[in-house]
Amino acid sequence: MDRKDLLGIKDLSKEEILEVLDTAKEMKKILNGEKYSQILKGKTVVTIFFEPSTRTRLSFEMAAKYLGAHYGNIEVATSSVAKGESLIDTIRTVEMMKADVIIPRHNMSGAPHLMAKYTDASIINAGDGINEHPTQALLDMMTIREKKESFEGLKVAIIGDIMHSRVARSNIWGLKKMGAEVRVAGPSTLMPPQIEKMGVKTYYNVEEAIKDADVVMGLRIQLERQKSGLFPSIDEYREYFGINKERMKLAKADAILMHPGPINRNIEVTSEAANAEYSAIEEQVTNGVAVRMALLKILCERRN
Ligand code: NCD
């Protein structure tokens, strides 16, 4: 991988994805071992999150620290952003403090792309609006790869608020490149028009989508991104689209269940299913650290 930034999965090649996944496998050994290396010695990593986050921000921090980098975080609510400073001035300020990698999350699609143009630091997109969440898709692909022999022909059912999900978009780009068959299912009001153009099969019936799937991936309902009128009732959603043990029985016998988190338990996924032996949800969190270690390593080595 020879690029300054990681902005999305859309423009990555299959080879680049495999390089990240192979590196992440190596990084997981450090993570499961002494949790310390000097790979990023002398490098500085800064996160700046304009939207809430638990696992993504913390896993970038852990990844940076496990590899021996300096780490800083901008608290947006108490930063000069709250005084009206522009995105570009903010990013220039962080670069001038010698940041090597800057990791933004923003509610506007394209914000990291804009930032990348105005800084020599490497930008890793930690989620931009409804557009992309590349590190999530990479950790999801890592998790699938650990459980399944190959992506080729794998049936992956992504279920829920497809319209507002950057996780769905990044996974569709990635999984299609790797040769998987991707199905998307959800209420018609939460299905983006022309989603089939991304090469997926659309379902409005969750059972049909889950039938014979190798991977079932739930999504959070993105209430913060929805305009009114898209979502009549939580109870109805649970009844028609909620993932539960009975529905999981329709998938392949060795199917796995995934969810990027945070879960609205008993709405998108029942607790029973989320805690079942086929659930890979907690493993996804661990793999998130490994994938972010891998990306920091790859981007920083290129900077050297
Ligand atoms: C996702 C996100 O922020 O897009 N969360 C995450 O990073 N694990 C999914 C979500 O918030 O629904």
Automatic annotation (TrEMBL):
Coiled coil: none
Protein's UniProt keywords contain Transferase: yes
Subunit structure: Heterododecamer (2C3:3R2) of six catalytic PyrB chains organized as two trimers (C3), and six regulatory PyrI chains organized as three dimers (R2).
Function: Catalyzes the condensation of carbamoyl phosphate and aspartate to form carbamoyl aspartate and inorganic phosphate, the committed step in the de novo pyrimidine nucleotide biosynthesis pathway.
Residues annotated to bind L-aspartate: 83, 166, 220
This protein's name: Aspartate carbamoyltransferase
GO process annotations (BP): 'de novo' pyrimidine nucleobase biosynthetic process; 'de novo' UMP biosynthetic process; amino acid metabolic process
Reactions the enzyme catalyzes: carbamoyl phosphate + L-aspartate = N-carbamoyl-L-aspartate + phosphate + H(+)
Sequence ranges assigned to domain Aspartate/ornithine carbamoyltransferase carbamoyl-P binding in this UniProt record: 4-146
Species of the source: Thermoanaerobacter kivui (Acetogenium kivui)
GO MF, one annotated term: amino acid binding
Residues in Aspartate/ornithine carbamoyltransferase Asp/Orn-binding domain copies: 152-298
E.C. code: 2.1.3.2
Residues annotated to bind carbamoyl phosphate: 55-56, 105, 133, 136, 261-262
